[in-house]
Amino acid sequence: MKHLLAALLLGLGGVQVAVAQTAQPPDAVEWLQKIANAARQLNYSGTFIYQYGNRVETSRIIHMVDASGEHEKLETLDGSPREVIRNNDEVKCFLPDTKTVKVEKRTRAKSFPALLPQQLSALTENYAVRKMEPERIAGYDCQVIILEPRDGMRYGHKLWADAGSGLLLKATMLDEKGQVVEQFAFTELRIGGPIDREALKPKFAGAAAEWREDRSGAPAPVSADTGWSVKSIPPGFRKVTELKRSTAGRTVPVSHIVYSDGLAAVSVFIEPLPAGGRLRQGLSNQGAINVYTRSVSDHTVTVLGETPAATVMQIGNSVSFRGK
């Protein structure tokens, strides 16, 4: 469920925040760029854990870069088996429980260790960046970087990057009280060196020849004026995407608007209320993701984001239909 929600969070964009700005330490910002580049440009393989609440998920990742681009294999080691094979922007997800291969284009969603955007200007406008004392993670000496939010509308972050390569080895997201709401951390890792292409092949490839292929997520959404607007956008967030998505089982496209501050993203989904259906309104959350739902003009408005509850509620409560 976490991965399905995260796939909807498009981490890009950002604007000037309405608070006093201070100069960022150049070496700290350089470290952020090094972290952003390393996850996309290096060969690495290892095992990492993802923790949120009292849940822990373990995954194995293999990432290789060659003349044709990025190639990656991500395998979940807990619960139902699943493998995700990525070749640049083409993604295939092998689901043996349902004998299904889902094929789609990669979104700009974040994934560990590639959590930072390539463009950092918006990020440094909305977060104060500080270097901390080095620490040791998974056998590697690491530089520690703090991203401190400039207001209460976004979470803070603490990053541990390999002192040599810059690869992100551990990352925590911190709420308004400084409590950890989610954490990624490598427990075993190898950085650099050659990677055998055979290691990137799915273990289910042979059996998958007879599985069902699902390309329902493949069609690109259509950019469009949805006719909906948000009147009260939190400082530092700006609209980066507005489009309509066609989804399986629905005859009417879902309107989708995305706001981002350069690191955190908030998605707004709007669709007609189901005939005769009852809408469960209010706030819920899973790990760092808060979800707020309400009805507006015979439509269901769902706002979700890796932000404090106040952010999704402010956005959700100011959604209105302006017409076309």
What would you note in describing this structure?
The chain is mainly beta and 324 residues long. It is built from five helices and 21 strands. It has a twelve-stranded mixed β-sheet with strand order 7-8-9-10-11-1-2-3-4-5-6-12. The chain has a seven-stranded antiparallel β-sheet with strand order 13-15-16-17-20-19-18. The protein has a two-stranded antiparallel ribbon with strand order 14-21. Strand 10 (168-174) and strand 11 (180-191) form a beta hairpin. The longest helix has 16 residues, at 26-41. It is globular, with a radius of gyration of 20 Å. It starts with a helix and ends with a strand.
Helix content: 10-25%
Briefly note the structural class of the backbone.
mainly beta
Oligomeric state, counting identical vs distinct chains: single chain
- What overall form do the CA principal axes indicate? globular
Low-confidence stretches: 1-22
Largest sheet: 12 strands, mixed
Q: How much β-strand is present in the residues? A: over 45%
**How confident is the prediction overall: mean pLDDT?**
87
Number of helices: 5
The topology string of helices and strands comes to HHEEEEEEHEEEEEHEEEEEEEEEHE
Give the strand order, joined by hyphens, for the main sheet.
7-8-9-10-11-1-2-3-4-5-6-12
Instruction: Report how far apart the termini are.
Output: 34 Å
- The tally of beta strands, per DSSP, is 21
Please tell me how large the radius of gyration is: 20 Å
